[in-house]
Amino acid sequence: MSVTTSLISSLRSSSLLGTKVVTPRSVVLSRRLLSTSYVPATKAALPSRANNVVPKTPAYEIVSSFYTAINSNDLSSARDLIAQDCVYEDLIFSSPFVGRTAILEFFGKFIDATSTDMQFVIDDISKEDSSAVGVSWHLGELPKLTRKKFIIGYKA
User: Fold this and answer.
1) For 4, which DSSP code?
2) Which of left, alpha, beta for 15 (phi over 0: left; psi -120 to 50: alpha)?
3) Out of 2, 78, 118, 136, which could bridge 114 as a Cys pair, Cβ 3.0 to 4.6 Å?
4) Angle at 7 between CA 5 and CA 10, to 5 degrees
5) Bridging pattern class, strands 26-30 and 87-90
6) 86 lies in a domain?
7) Could you tell me the CA-to-CA distances from 153 to 24, 148, 156 in Å, in that order?
8) In this predicted model, what pLDDT tens digit does every residue of 37-82 receive, in sequence order?
9) What is the pLDDT of residues 14-23, one digit of tens each?
10) What is a single Pfam family found in this protein's UniProt entry (predicted)?
11) Counted domains in the chain
């Protein structure tokens, strides 16, 4: 059984996931990403929406910090990087995780179900938008010091 299959099986629950499973590759975090990193917008910046907020820190940096926290199994730091109304969409799941609580619950189960050697490696991250970030990632290999390897497509 592959690591991905066992991970999906261990994370699957009727309250979190639908029945459709696709290969994980891309993630979109949309809406407000970090509530504490937003400052009031000026009237010059957004004349019709002066009460809106604009990011003080670029959204892609917040998302990179989020994955760093997850890779460190630090849900407390990850919590500070997720706004209450954040939406986490991953192509492997049939519906998005909506809100800080749902996202943290998912990643808590992910951390519990995987080895500490499993790491998110960001392949590409969008930098154009301040309210939504697209991320392509893969799960990294074990550290070289263990001398263990993942075998994909082994034929005897």
Assistant:
1) H
2) alpha
3) 118
4) 110
5) antiparallel
6) yes
7) 18, 16, 10
8) 333 333 333 344 444 555 588 889 999 999 999 999 999 999 999 9
9) 444 444 444 4
10) NTF2
11) 1
- List alpha helices for the chain, DSSP H: 3-11, 59-71, 75-80, 100-113
152 part of a folded domain: no
Question: Which pairs from 35-44 meet CB under 8 Å and 24+ separation?
Answer: 35/83, 35/84, 36/80, 37/62
DSSP labels for 68-96?
HHHHTT-HHHHHHTS-TT-EEEETTSSS-
Look up the pTM and report it.
0.58
Specify if 81 maps to a domain: yes
Report how far apart, in Å, the C-alpha atoms of 46 and of each of 29, 55, 83, 154 are.
Answer: 23, 13, 21, 57
Q: Which range of residues forms the domain containing residue 106?
A: 3-134
Rounded Cα–Cα distance for residues 82 and 104 (Å): 9
Tell me the two tokens of residue 106: 């998912």
Q: In whole angstroms, how far apart are CA 63 and each of 98, 124, 148?
A: 16, 12, 30
Tracing tokens 């504490």 back to the chain, one arrives at 36
